[in-house]
Design brief:
Layout: E1 4-12, E2 16-21, E3 24-29, H1 32-35, E4 44-54, E5 57-63, H2 66-76, H3 83-92, H4 95-103, H5 107-111, H6 118-132, H7 137-141, H8 150-163, H9 168-181, H10 188-199
Parallel strand pairs: 3-5
Antiparallel strand pairs: 1-2, 1-4, 2-3, 4-5
Length: 201
């Protein structure tokens, strides 16, 4: 079992990366939350990985934090939720918020995720409500890499917006507006969420 991949980031896309480990390129599928933390191509990267094996496929799923990885493991254990849908859930809602929605039986929040209907949301709550309370999310998130400096932060958010299909001009304008309204200590996730909220208006 491959539990971690560490090497050179050969390429990155919104949903997957290729990590060069001593000349061998590993394709790793990732949620958006992990994408936001990635360095530039040609830099070193470390991802926690979960290997998913089926008769017709062998895939690696990578995560920036153990909090994401633990929640992914719970999600794929739910009947009717495969790795792709589990990644989509983690891409749509930050891991702590997703955990909270499940723990509080917030079916509406889960149904807001593309691909999750009422029955699936209810099944997730039924099967995972007790289990998510056992996840020590706070301790897990303590291993998250430190946030980048301001210039790098803005660059990372802009890169994510461009990869999501926004035009550079509108993305930069929205980001400047949000940045001017935020506390100087606001991190990547907050800046990205607030900018996406402004762009969606």
């Amino acid at each position: 079992m491959i539990a971690q991949v560490q090497g050179i980031l050969a390429s990155k896309h919104v949903d997957r990366v290729i990590v060069d480990v001593h000349g061998v390129g590993y394709q790793v599928f990732i949620p958006l939350s992990t994408y936001y933390t990635l360095p530039d191509p040609a830099d070193r990267v470390t991802l926690l990985t979960t290997m998913y094996v089926r008769e017709d496929a062998l895939r690696l799923y990578g995560f920036a934090t153990s909090a994401e990885q633990d929640l992914f493991a719970l999600l794929v254990g739910v009947s009717s939720i495969g790795p792709r849908l589990a990644l989509n859930m983690l891409s749509s809602i930050a891991a702590p918020d997703l955990r909270r929605a499940i723990a509080q039986a917030d079916s509406a929040a889960l149904q807001a995720i593309p691909g999750i209907g009422r029955k699936t949301a209810e099944r997730v709550i039924l099967e995972l409500q007790d289990k998510v309370t056992l996840l020590d999310m706070t301790a897990a998130e303590g291993g998250t890499a430190p946030l980048p400096k301001d210039d790098q932060l803005v660059g990372d958010v802009l890169s994510a917006l461009l990869n999501l299909g926004y035009k550079r001009g509108e993305a930069e304008k929205a980001m400047r507006t949000v940045r001017a309204q935020q506390d100087g200590d606001a991190g990547l996730e907050t800046l990205l969420k607030d900018t996406l909220r402004l762009l969606a208006r």
